[in-house]
Specification:
Length: about 260
């Protein structure tokens, strides 16, 4: 039986674990939903040593990578993948970025540092934009009264459905591709306002009013999200991994979530 070890069994990695178990893999993982305590070095090393494939979704901590810092020596000769962020590209003022674009100049300098370390370790870097899916989408924000439309003309984001992230990691495994960076984003970067408006249309409710950043009283994290403007290209993942997103735009993704609900 093929064995997979996951560091950080959260929302996205949990979906991936579910898929791999359905494919007959044995999966061990750290995290709140995992079966192994990250701080238990003996258990982690023992389980990781039996795994052929290792994926980390653990974010930076204090500017460094907790997985590589503590267990990097135990991951040599493993197939490695790291769920990174397209935030490493920083602000592109609405222009397209791809895997050849410079990294490290944005607000996520710690993430860019970890991204580079995993690349040096021989991992497949799966750089992710805004993630949405069941329980975490514009539909939920609209229904919860937490949706905003921000008056920022020209502001554009990329996003990806969680199930398309899962299929991207599976494609990386099945294609046995070489280490490197791959953007997993949908085909239609667009404003957050357009996504909220589509969610409202599907729910048959009026969209929230346009507001300034100040009027919306966003959290510092959300304000940082709006401070960057870029379109993320996904051509390399399609060409090299053979990845085809099931939800090529937010419209298909939100419609599927409405049906599922």
């Amino acid at each position: 039986m093929a064995r997979l070890f996951i560091f950080g069994l959260g929302y996205t990695a949990g979906r991936f674990a579910q898929e791999m178990r359905a494919r007959g893999w044995h999966v061990d993982a750290t995290g709140s939903a995992g079966n192994i305590d990250f701080s238990n070095s003996k258990s982690v090393v023992a389980a990781a040593s039996q795994a052929s494939h290792v994926l980390s979704s653990v974010p930076p901590s204090d500017g460094s990578d907790p997985v590589l810092d503590r267990y990097g020596d135990a991951l040599t000769d493993k197939w490695l993948a790291y769920l990174s962020s397209t935030g490493v590209y920083g602000d592109a003022q609405g222009a397209w970025v791809d895997e050849a674009s410079p990294t490290g100049g944005g607000r996520r300098t710690a993430r860019a540092h970890c991204d580079a370390r995993w690349l040096e370790a021989g991992a497949r870097l799966l750089r992710l934009p805004g993630i949405y899916g069941p329980g975490r989408s514009a539909l939920d924000r609209v229904q919860g009264g937490n949706a905003h439309r921000i008056d920022l003309p020209g502001q554009v984001f990329s996003r990806v459905h969680v199930d398309d992230i899962v299929s991207g990691v599976v494609a990386a495994i099945e294609s046995d591709t070489l280490p490197g960076a791959y953007n997993l984003a949908d085909d239609l970067p667009t404003s957050q306002n357009a996504v909220i408006e589509e969610a409202c249309r599907l729910l048959n409710v009026a969209p929230p009013p346009l507001q300034t950043i100040e009027e919306a009283k966003l959290s510092p994290m959300a304000r940082g999200f709006y401070a960057e403007n870029r379109r993320v290209a996904n051509g390399k993942a399609k060409r090299v991994l053979g990845w085809v997103p099931k939800y090529p735009t937010f419209r298909e993704g939100l419609a599927a979530l409405t049906v599922r609900a």
